[in-house]
Hints:
The complex is a heterotrimer of chains A (189), B (348) and C (759).
Chain A: E1 10-14, H1 24-29, E2 42-45, E3 54-57, H2 66-70, H3 97-101, E4 108-110, E5 115-117, H4 123-126, H5 133-137, E6 143-147, H6 148-154, E7 158-166, E8 169-180, E9 186-188
Parallel strand pairs in A: 1-8, 7-9
Antiparallel strand pairs in A: 1-6, 2-3, 4-5, 7-8
Chain B: H1 7-27, H2 39-61, H3 63-76, H4 81-97, H5 100-103, H6 107-131, E1 135-139, E2 146-151, E3 154-160, H7 164-170, H8 172-193, H9 195-200, H10 203-229, H11 235-252, H12 259-263, H13 266-279, E4 282-284, E5 291-294, H14 295-307, H15 325-343
Antiparallel strand pairs in B: 1-2, 2-3, 4-5
Helix pairs in contact in B: 1-2, 2-11, 3-13, 4-13, 6-8, 8-10, 10-11
Chain C: H1 8-15, E1 35-40, E2 49-55, E3 58-64, H2 77-81, E4 96-99, E5 103-106, H3 109-127, E6 132-136, H4 142-156, E7 161-163, H5 170-180, E8 197-201, H6 205-208, H7 213-221, E9 225-229, H8 235-238, E10 242-244, H9 251-264, H10 270-276, E11 277-278, H11 280-286, H12 292-299, H13 303-315, E12 319-323, H14 325-328, H15 333-347, E13 355-359, E14 378-379, E15 383-384, H16 388-398, H17 412-420, E16 426-430, H18 434-437, H19 441-450, E17 453-458, E18 470-473, E19 482-485, E20 490-494, H20 507-520, H21 529-540, H22 552-558, E21 561-562, E22 589-590, E23 609-614, H23 630-635, E24 641-643, H24 645-651, E25 657-662, E26 667-674, E27 682-686, E28 715-725
Parallel strand pairs in C: 6-7, 6-16, 8-9, 8-12, 9-10, 11-22, 12-13, 16-17, 17-18, 23-27, 24-26
Antiparallel strand pairs in C: 1-2, 2-3, 4-5, 4-18, 14-15, 19-20, 20-21, 23-28, 25-26, 25-28
Amino acid sequence: MTDTQFKQDQEFFMDPQRCIGCHACEMACAECETNGQIPMIHVDYVDRYTTVQTSVQVCMHCEDPTCAKVCPADAITRDEFGVVHTAKTDRCIACANCVMACPFGVPKKIETTQLMMKCNLCYDRTSAGRKPMCATVCPSGALWYGTREKMRELRPNSTPVNHFQFGMQSVKTKVNIMMPKGATKLVVD
Amino acid sequence: MLSTLNPVALLTATLATLALVASIFVGSRNLANFDAALVPYLFGCIFACFGVAYRYSVWLQRPPTWRYFVRGWQLLFSGRALVHGWELIKSFAVDFVGQRFIRNRGRVRGIGHMLMAGGCILAFGVTFPLVFGWIHFGLRPGGIDTYELYTFGFKTMEFPLHGWFAELIFNALNWAAILVIAGVVLLIRRRLTHAGQIAIQTFEGDWLPLLLLLAISVTGLGITLDYRFMRGEAHQFMAITHAITVILFLVWLPFGKFYHIIQRPAQLGVAVYRRAGTDGPQAVCPHTGEPFTSKMHTDDLKHVTKQLGFDYTLAGGSSHLDLSPQGKRAALAKAHLAARQESGAFFG
Amino acid sequence: MATLPIPAGQIIADFGPHKNYPPPEGFPGRNEPDAVVETHCCFCGMQCGIKLLVKDNRVVGFEPWEEFPYNQGRLCPKGVQRYLQNNHPDRLLHPVERVEGSGFRRIDWDRAMERTVSEIQRIQSQYGRDAFAMLSGVSLTNEKGYLAGKFARVALKTKNLDYNGRLCMVSAGAGNKKAFGLDRASNDFSDLAHAEVVMICGSNVSETFPTLIHWIWQARDNGAKLVVVDPRLTPVARTADLHLPIRPGRDSALYGAILHQLVKNDWLDHDFIDNHTSGVEAAVEAVENYDLDWAENVTGIPRKKIMLAAEWWGKAATSFLLHARGIEHHTKGVENVSSCINLVLATGRIGKPYCGYATITGQGNGQGGREHGHKCDQLPGNRDIENPEHRRYISDVWGIEERDLPGKGLTAYELIEAIHRGEIKGLLSICFNPVVSLPNNNFVREALEKLEFYVNIDFFLSETARHADIVLAGSLQEEEEGTVTTSEGRVVRIRQAVTPPGEARTDTEILLEIARRLGAGKHFSFNNSEEIFNELRVASKGGTADYFGITYEKIEQNMGVFWPCPSLDHPGTPRLWEDRKFKTPDGRAHFVPVPYHDPMEITDAEYPVILTTGRVVSQYLSGTQTRRIGKLVDQYPEPLLEIHPALAAKYGIANREIVRLVSRRGTAEFPAQLVETIREDTVFVPYHWAGAQSINQLTSGHLDPVSKIPEFKVSAVRLEPTGRRAPVPVQDPIQATGGSPAHPGPKPPQPHAFTGIGK
């Protein structure tokens, strides 16, 4: 982490409506060195009975992460680049507070190892100046990693938004969601 | 500076430290049984005690920790004390003694940690009582072949000087050092070769603790080797470097990675909490229609998040936290779909 | 020959399919590979670029290849997991021989070859040369496909060679040849980017060609309208501007009705039609009665939607039409294709930037494999085996007498029928799993059981290979050098990353050795794949699929070259027809009149429901490879019967209830999956599975009269609910679930369980 080449002009953008539910991201995530064959990304059918719509969810890397705050063991930290890291293995006591409190439903508790794990923005790759695995393989652009300028050029009629409103709670994140042009936040209520 | 200190923690730490000092006085019979050569270690221990107690207290005051702490004791002494007590014992055996969850993270990793933890606990078990003067050894008066062990000044046992028990007990720290070195070597090897670890490890957080343990063990073993094979010629050097490394360890205990040794027992409380949760009413996700955790857990979390300044109350009065993780992900995807639909275009 | 030597269950215990997973922390050596090999995915026709990580002659992982222009690192789950077919416990490491009552035993190569050759010679001398047939496949490289064609005609001297492309793109090929005189996608996919209308006809691109989605979504980002024609609301159709949920088997009615509207509203490019096409009058006349009412009645699509599609297509300045198996797997597959091409020609939107038309070729080398003499009626360069001039040219290249070159043989399904009738006695097959992939596969199995001698070349013991007398251990895609031609017509390089393990040999070595032993050695003196390719270049020279100007070096330098490429200084042709010089005899593009026909099987009181089949994203074709890769299996572990809740309600079928499906050919049981995303008169089952789980027990062997493609996409069935609830498929507890739910308490089976992830 000391001699990192993390590119701070690169950002993560997601757009669930582009997702085709193929699970390439999930398979690729499991190839990431930091999480040993366990995928950290979530792809689910929203409701297969009525639709083929899928949700795709990486960690949004909140500016004030609920997961870290509710952790009784101080196991979750946010670094100088805004990356919220997976639970420290020595600290985590597997209480699942983070799993249940994360407004995006991201952290995963691994029963056998008594450990919470979550997406760390492919730190092994991003800290070496590369793109996260999921955003590299995603065939639909539901997950995309690069500069804001490039994104503006590619999708001129969408606006990246990093502000979410869950009822009374406003949450700001490092990861952006692509919204209709002019939107300022995504309201989940 | 002073204003940033936590008064409750300050009080707790002071009381804990005073209690330790008192126990040293009492245990060593007013320092009668105290080994003066161990004074530097003693000061290290006292500092560590203050630091650990302070940090522990600050930690417990955090809302989520406090909630678990209180719940843990409540449950242990609830009407189902037997069930919960049994859960505690089971978790202690499997997770603490057996360290199964660490072995599940990787075989070599599990073995390495087990060796290291075993060595450390053995070393603590010998060192602390000796330093505090709680135990001491002496020749049985009138002979040269039988040793006596005194605990808190009371004679607890005697054993022959050249017997296997004496060998075992006088070399305990050497055994501990060998265990720790073996464990450290395994874990260092992993840190050098595992790409995932290489990506996220830090010197201060991950390497320093290993190197410190290695230094303590090597210098400790060095004292014996020097005495056995070098006629004590390097005793001064070995003794001083060993003391320095051990004191560094003690001073760093409340701050660095080693603090997890103090913190880990919380896992036992979590085991009890989960057992109680499983036995009690479940939280059913309105999206999936399935139970996903205990009602107690979601209720506690709603309370704790509010204490922390989060308010996930939704317009209808329910809470976003009533949803399971999958339900939350679906809620987000649906909200996004609605926003896109409303705008008239999915793309662009 | 005969039935299986031992019950299938025992064969499976030894030879799989077993699920392969990487170890929890990945294969050792992944971080410090000996080599990083830039090659292509072995699966579909997109042929996405991918880098394989090699350590100690094993493929241990992958890296996205972001520089490759088509997919730029993007992959689907099959691509991500493709490396797990290497290092697989089921891999055949040596030849095996069938032993009655005990299964398959190891034999040495010499014995295997000796027996193979003596049986070929015995059958051919006893019953005639054509009584020994060969079946091949288009997951093979161009070199191997070319070699198979030459091997069958020159070494086996049989006319009966055909290939599994017969189940894939032959309808498109025939339709393209009729219209353009050449069979290739007219554009590379980058022409999608600024098309105003993208029309996808019968293709679940989102599951079958996921990486193509990027280009379609890019078009939409630039304002394109997307029209998807599919009986199901697939992920690509979900957000489409217009989804036309067509009744299976009625495709040409829809496209005929659209053509009718183009004419009626004069949304035509008269200049293009007058100067560059022929046959428009007959084509228009054929659809003159296909008004909206008629079309709504036949296709089941509301007339407003049909009109809207016609209007968007008619008024657009640029457009791209894509179609795939959804319109091609029909007894009128060629007509369906022609009816689509008519829309392209009527509006003149071809051979210009962002104006395109393409069939999305399905198999790995579905494009290249159908060009160089792999088919029963074809010679290299997409030449015609019945054209005397073509025969002379190829005979010269091969150094044989023209009279010794066999003529046109039987197509794949006809060949199986001939085996069943006892006319063909011996078979050599490679890269083909007809017991799973052909329709009415109980019939196929019976046919294989009648063979006197059957030799199979494969890397796994497939369901078909279980019927073989000898199985020769061949090679995986990453074990040989070569080239393939992508769906876009781009010729790309396949790299040998590792050598075949154990005693396994490359497919090329095996074919060359058999050829030598058959006494044809002088025609098969190739030392490596590049020498084969160089002969292919010469053989294709002057043909419509002209590869003469393409060399290995040129491909490597340019990351692929588009054919036709007639000379060494030619840059290749990404976009066809810019010169308006079509390859038809008159140099014009041909309209083809398409009067509407019903599918061969229509529903009746006894079989009242339409069955259609297709794929899921995690599996590839007959599953020989993908049913052996753990995570791909776990993603969709068993074939499900997709059924609309309204139809299910008629039969009282509940979700996950086992339903017996009965057609005129067979019966099979599947768990029901109730979804509102399918037509109410249609059920869908994916076809990747074998044995009792194979939906191809029910599909029909009715063939298109021109292309001879079977009508997989329409069968009439009836539903019989069993009242039994399907058990939740067992998954590897550690590997498959990854994370388990935080709550350990009792958990009812979840409707979303097959994503394989706990939370």
